[in-house]
Write a structure and sequence with these properties.
With about 300 residues, the chain is an alpha+beta fold. The protein folds into two domains: about 90 residues, Phosphorylase Kinase, domain 1; about 190 residues, Alpha-Beta Complex (Aminoglycoside 3'-phosphotransferase, Chain: A, domain 2), CATH 3.90.1200. It contains nine helices and ten strands. The strands form three sheets. It has a five-stranded antiparallel beta sheet, sandwiched between helices. The chain is globular and about 60 Å long.
C-alpha cells in the first residue's frame, strides 16, 4: 500500500465497517456518484455515508469535524454533516475515516439552480450565521485548513509562480494589480468561523434551491474572505448584488476575497494544481471576471 495514495474501493469500505462497526456490517455500501476531491464517499445503508480520505493531509480534518460540527449545527439555518463515528487507522487503511448522517440533496450545479439571487441570499445568510458563532476557542488556520482563514500572503510565492508560468496567456499586469491589492489588508476584527471551501461541490440543493452545506474539512477561525468565492466563480450579476447586500463585510474583505479566487484560478490554469471542482473547468474566465470586478471597485 502506497501510504500517500491508498486504493479505496467498495471492498475496502465494507471491510472497514465490518471490522470496526460490526453493528452496521449488514448494510449496503455503494459509491456516491458526485464525491468530493478530498474523500471517497460511500452510502452506508439509507441513512449514513462513509468518508474515507484520499491523502493523509485530509485525514487530519476528520477529528476536527467530529469535534466542532455538533457545536456549530444548532446555530446554522441549514443542515450540515452530523458525524456519527470515527474509524481508526488499521492494517486495511492507515488513517482516520468517518461515518456521518446522510443528507438528501443534489450537487448545486449552477444550471439547475432555479433562482440564483435567492440561492446567493440563502448562502449569505448561512455564512452570516456561521460568522456569528462564538469562535475564540476554535482552530486557528494552519495545515489542517490549508491556511483558509489565514493571511493570503501564505500563497504569495505560489501565485507569482503561476502568473509567470501562464506568461502572455493572461494579462499579467492586471492580475498582479488585483493580487497586490488583496495583500494590502488583513482581517482586523475578532476571528470568525470559516467553512474554507464554499464551492459548488460542497453545496446541496433540493427543488433548485440551497438545502445544505457539506465538507467542513477546511474549517477554521479567522478571516471570512476565503468563503466569498462563489461571488466570482458562479453567481450572476443579480446574484452577486444580492450576496454582497446580505453580507456585512467591508471593501478590504471583498478585495481579499478576490485574491483567494484569483490564487485558486491561477494555480488551476497554470497546472500547478488539479481539481474536479466546477471552477477547474473555466479558470481563465474566472480570472477575467475577478479583474473586471476589481476595476469596477477601484
Amino acid at each position: 500500500m502506497n501510504p500517500e495514495a491508498p486504493h479505496i474501493d467498495v471492498a475496502l469500505a465494507r471491510r472497514l465497517v465490518k471490522s470496526q462497526f460490526p453493528r452496521w456490517a449488514d448494510l449496503d455500501v455503494t459509491p456516491v456518484a458526485n464525491e468530493g476531491w478530498c474523500n471517497r464517499a460511500f452510502r452506508l445503508g439509507e441513512q449514513m455515508v462513509l468518508r474515507i480520505p484520499r491523502l493523509q493531509a485530509y485525514s487530519d480534518q476528520i477529528k476536527k469535524e467530529y469535534d466542532w460540527l455538533p457545536k456549530l449545527a444548532p446555530r446554522l439555518p441549514l443542515p450540515v454533516p452530523e458525524p456519527l463515528a470515527i474509524g481508526a487507522p488499521s492494517e486495511d487503511y492507515p488513517w482516520r475515516w468517518s461515518v456521518c448522517r446522510w443528507i438528501d440533496g443534489e450537487v448545486a450545479e449552477p444550471e439547475r439552480v432555479i433562482d440564483m439571487a435567492r440561492f446567493a441570499q440563502d448562502l449569505a445568510n448561512l455564512l452570516t450565521a456561521l460568522h456569528g458563532v462564538y469562535a475564540e476557542d476554535g482552530p486557528r488556520p494552519g495545515n489542517h485548513s490549508f491556511f483558509r482563514g489565514g493571511p493570503l500572503a501564505s500563497y504569495d510565492a505560489e501565485t507569482r509562480k503561476a502568473v509567470a508560468a501562464l506568461g502572455s496567456s493572461i494579462d499579467a499586469a492586471a492580475v498582479l494589480e488585483v493580487w497586490d491589492r488583496s495583500l494590502t489588508s488583513t482581517w482586523q476584527r475578532p476571528p470568525v468561523w470559516v467553512h474554507g471551501d464554499v464551492s459548488v461541490g460542497n453545496l446541496l440543493m433540493q427543488r433548485g434551491q440551497l438545502c445544505a452545506v457539506i465538507d467542513f474539512g477546511n474549517l477554521a477561525v479567522g478571516d471570512p474572505a476565503c468563503d466569498l468565492a462563489m461571488n466570482w466563480t458562479v453567481f450572476t450579476a443579480e446574484a452577486r448584488e444580492a450576496f454582497r447586500d446580505e453580507l456585512p463585510l467591508d471593501a478590504d474583505t471583498w478585495a481579499r476575497g478576490r485574491g483567494w479566487v484569483l490564487w485558486k484560478a491561477l494555480i488551476l490554469a497554470s497546472g500547478l494544481s488539479s481539481s474536479n471542482a466546477y471552477e477547474a473547468s473555466n479558470p481563465k474566465s474566472i480570472i477575467e471576471k475577478v479583474i473586471d470586478d476589481h476595476r469596477i471597485e477601484a
